[in-house]
Design goal:
TIM Barrel, about 300 residues, eight-stranded parallel sheet, single chain, alpha/beta, 10 helices
Length: about 300
């Protein structure tokens, strides 16, 4: 297993099963979590991310996070690296999440600085330096998500933060537009930065890769397509990479609206999930939208299981 992160690193959804009428009463589904990890690994992904925004992390208790992360690490069984999301309101809370992950053997921690830290590079660097000091053996991935959910840090601030905290070895850059920010960060960051990872659900993956991004963190439902795209890009077959991108983009556009509801619906269609409930407030997919999503799936030729076309 490579110590350098690259390729497709999907953010795993959290599966729930509902015992009542209220989605908020949904319980985490441990068996479905195992199926999710197996699906991802069979698709050929190069890493797994849990929990993240796409995991409905804000709706999970600390105990639920720990239980699910343990399942992810166990099922991955060392085949690919696991990246643990650890964003929280204080450095102490981030460090607590990091210790849980570290006890499971996780080496990479992804942190989105809280909005309370502001956008000043010095303040954000101080927050992350405290985290790094508490977790000296952990590599940190600095997530820069767009507003209103994220801090939307300027590229110049990102470079200053990375320079001040050497344990930040990767940046997940997903502000809009992410491309120019990726170019600036790669051109101006110190050698301690191993790479920049694209976000935004892989909706801009070709531009990110062209600018030097080493990896992408999309949602899970089209992992096999994204693995095929990544493989085509790396072997220099840009025509195939773009063809896959164009075929998947309609669904990725819908995923930007319906978020984890779409992810879970597609995973249900693919035989991975049986329950598509979510806890997070997310637009409901009505009948017309379902018809549109399923039509896109038919056009892609995506049915159950994993369909890979990696040379």
């Amino acid at each position: 297993m490579s110590s350098v992160l690259s390729g497709i690193l999907p953010v795993l959804p959290t599966p729930f099963r509902v015992n009542g009428e209220n989605d908020l009463e949904a319980e985490i589904d441990l068996e479905a979590m195992r199926r999710i990890v197996q699906f991802a690994c069979e698709a050929g992904v190069q890493g797994l991310v849990f929990p993240g925004f796409a995991s409905e992390v804000e709706s999970l208790s600390q105990a639920e996070r720990a239980t699910l992360l343990e399942i992810v690490v166990h099922e991955a069984a060392g085949r690919v690296p696991v990246i643990a999301g650890a964003s929280a309101a204080s450095p102490k809370e981030v460090a607590e999440h990091g210790r849980v992950a570290g006890a499971l053997g996780v080496k990479h921690l992804m942190v989105q600085p809280p909005k309370s830290a502001g956008v000043d590079a010095g303040a954000v660097a101080a927050f992350l330096a405290e985290v790094a000091g508490a977790l000296p053996n952990m590599e940190i991935i600095l997530q820069n998500a767009p507003a209103p959910r994220g801090s939307d840090l300027a590229p110049e601030a990102m470079v200053d933060i990375v320079s001040a905290v050497p344990q930040i070895t990767y940046v997940k850059e997903e502000t809009l537009p992410a491309g120019p920010a990726i170019s600036h960060i790669l051109a101006n960051s110190p050698a301690t930065l191993k790479g920049v990872i694209g976000g935004g659900g892989a909706r801009y993956i070709l531009d990110e890769y062209a600018r030097g991004a080493c990896a992408a963190m999309p949602a899970l439902e089209l992992a096999d397509e994204h693995v095929s795209l990544d493989a085509a890009w790396r072997r220099g077959d840009l025509e195939t990479a773009r063809a896959i991108y164009v075929r998947t983009l309609p669904l990725l556009t819908l995923q930007a609206v319906y978020r984890m509801r779409l992810t879970k619906h597609v995973l249900m269609r693919r035989g991975v999930l049986t329950d598509v409930h979510v806890r997070a407030p997310t637009p409901v997919i009505d009948g017309y939208a379902l018809e549109d999503i399923d039509a896109n799936l038919r056009k892609l030729g995506v049915r159950s299981g994993v369909k890979r076309e990696v040379a």
